[in-house]
């Protein structure tokens, strides 16, 4: 039984049009999108099935996209996607994690060759997470006369400007994010196991807000303390929070796969001056960056504004970017992997673009994050969350 | 500051020996492991950093493995890995999600070429999740004279037989799994939003058991109801549980990245006969499979025992396998992607092997799962969890 789509069919059709227009400009006949976020955005498909090979095929010759995946997951596509049943292809179970038989061989033979796309220019997402080297070899082997090129994240770029409804979902995610941070402030204290605080974060994240259930975020809560905060991506364990350590909480609520990350730092005890200096620098850097965040300016203008402030305070960010686009996504990343807020990035800002603006400081033996998710408006910028922008002390 | 390793250094050294022996047998000089589970098992590395390119390199020429990843994550490697600092390589920040500069170019030039491995047989994990087609192209372009071959999951196979300490971690994960299922039975009822139940699942999973904090599982809780249970991988939303529907809960606790999944089905209301029949068939199939699970028998012997029972009850499982190996892992999968419990699989069972044994039934408009995580002992088999094996009715 087909579910109500999260967006109108008209919105999906418009997305496909946008992608086809970009395909035509780049001389692509057939595009294969394997990034689960792209699959969702193009078709409505949503399921934890990206641990097997799957994708969406768009051809300039056909109105609707084609979904392919494991036969068992075709039932999920029937429930979630807007396309007609004929455009959903399931490969047999024997192709699942079988070293001798690869799903992409089946896809090449049963879809692309049968559709007579064997001499086309076919673009694949060559650096997207679930498109493995082997998938590429198996697929190309079935179509020796096709011209395979890199899609260079074409669909990710098409996703950059969000619709009103997408912004609405991100605002719900943002309200969940705020609720989580408030919960953290309520429960965190010296001596409490980190795993306990994370259990409360998850409880709050999934319970959601005002009747909107929370979805799983594409990155787990990150909350490194003390020297571990120099190593941003270490996850928690059962050891307790210690006195006189800073912990930053990089956390996102998620609603219908849309994210809205935000970070805040909590110091338990009495911080020394370097933390107050870093707080001051970060807040000023955020304000300077937001000043530059408006239509017509570029991503590098935001990055340069941040760098100028950091330079003034003598802080070296080791060339780290200070943000990236966000939206619909699946593990392992909530970013869109297109532009970055970085000094060399020339992307022009447009209304509806959304970023996690994160001028964090990661030094050899400590770190601090105060970050905001933002969207570009017709005249400037808004933050998704409304939460005190400060170093919290407990 | 280096942390205490989850396993003794001796155990890691022994693992590397096992891998090198397999490499030599297969005429591999250098192996590049990019599966985060393999990286953890080989070196102790653990972090949510697999959204950027990273890996572990093992050469027959060198004692220790080499870790490579983003410069920012090198700090995490310093804290988590047992190798000396010289064997940890971080690529500069400008290579992070930058379409013009690829980390694998840096790896090829700064590690493999400098070590003079440019004419070696180099094996990569060609179908592992985070080894993209582009990563392969960029890497091979830097070493035109090397002979690149597929590692065919060599490290995953080496992980098959677990150590005593690994089994101990899985037992802790199993205790968390039981605790979650008990929590589900306590809170689930008609009318309650599914997201609320999931929030309680996560709260319990991460709080852990007896002082052992829970880690994030590599697959989110799956709990499809009614017709959605035909589509196993659809995730939850805020809609409430309905009367007269079955829901199966496929859930794993996780401890230090080790998993122990188990599924149970709950019917809310009064089930019709088909559910009782399916329950009977599944329990009998599990008993028949466990009977075959002993050293010397093969994976196909378990699968055939299940199929015989299913056939007797007239249930068609559409060729789906009935289990897979489990252990240390990262999203998107808690399986090991080597053998399967499947009629064509000839893997010989050995003491210390661990499986999620899951003879689920997925039909066109309903589904049921009763599953167990198991380990092969010297004489037979044990289940990790001790939880009533039945269809629960509420």
From TrEMBL, chains A, B:
SUPFAM superfamilies: Creatinase/aminopeptidase, Creatinase/prolidase N-terminal domain. Residues 169-378 form the Peptidase M24 domain. This is Creatinase. Pfam families: Creatinase_N, Peptidase_M24. It comes from Arcobacter nitrofigilis (strain ATCC 33309 / DSM 7299 / CCUG 15893 / LMG 7604 / NCTC 12251 / CI). Residues 15-160 form the Creatinase N-terminal domain. InterPro entries: Creatin/AminoP/Spt16_N, Creatinase/aminopeptidase-like, Creatinase_N, Pept_M24, Peptidase_M24B.
């Amino acid at each position: 039984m087909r579910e109500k789509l999260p967006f109108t069919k008209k919105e999906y059709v418009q997305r496909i049009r946008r992608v086809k227009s970009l395909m035509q400009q780049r001389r692509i006949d057939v595009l294969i999108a394997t990034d689960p976020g792209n699959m969702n955005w193009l078709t409505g498909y949503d399921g934890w099935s990206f641990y097997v090979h799957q994708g969406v095929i768009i051809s300039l010759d056909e109105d609707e996209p084609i979904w392919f995946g494991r036969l068992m997951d075709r039932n999920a596509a029937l429930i979630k996607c807007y396309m007609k049943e004929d455009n959903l292809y399931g490969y047999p179970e024997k192709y699942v994690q079988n070293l001798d038989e690869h799903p992409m061989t089946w896809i090449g033979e049963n879809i692309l060759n049968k559709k007579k796309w064997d001499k086309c220019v076919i673009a694949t997402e060559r650096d997207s997470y679930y498109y493995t080297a082997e998938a590429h070899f198996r697929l190309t082997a079935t179509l020796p006369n096709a011209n395979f090129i890199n899609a260079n994240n074409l669909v990710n770029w098409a996703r950059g400007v969000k619709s009103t409804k997408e912004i609405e979902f991100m605002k719900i995610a943002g309200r969940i994010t705020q609720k989580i941070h408030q919960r953290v402030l309520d429960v965190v204290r010296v001596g409490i196991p980190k795993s306990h605080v994370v259990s409360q974060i998850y409880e709050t994240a999934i319970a959601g807000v005002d009747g909107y259930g929370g979805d799983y975020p594409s990155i787990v809560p990150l909350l490194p303390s003390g020297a571990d905060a120099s190593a941003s991506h270490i996850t928690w364990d059962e050891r307790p929070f210690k006195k006189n350590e800073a912990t930053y909480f990089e956390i996102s609520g998620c609603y219908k796969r849309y994210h809205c990350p935000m970070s805040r730092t909590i110091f338990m005890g009495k911080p020394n001056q370097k933390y107050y200096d870093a707080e001051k620098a970060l807040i000023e850097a955020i304000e300077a960056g937001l000043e530059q965040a408006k239509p017509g300016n570029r991503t590098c203008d935001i990055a340069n504004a941040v760098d100028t402030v950091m330079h003034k305070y003598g802080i070296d960010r080791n060339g780290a970017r200070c943000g990236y686009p966000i939206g619909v996504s699946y593990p392992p990343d909530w970013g869109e992997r297109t532009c970055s807020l970085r000094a060399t990035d020339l992307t022009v800002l447009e209304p509806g673009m959304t970023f996690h603006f994160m001028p964090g400081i990661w030094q050899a033996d400590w770190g601090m994050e105060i970050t905001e998710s933002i969207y570009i408006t017709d005249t400037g910028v808004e933050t998704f969350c409304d939460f005190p922008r400060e170093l919290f002390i407990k």
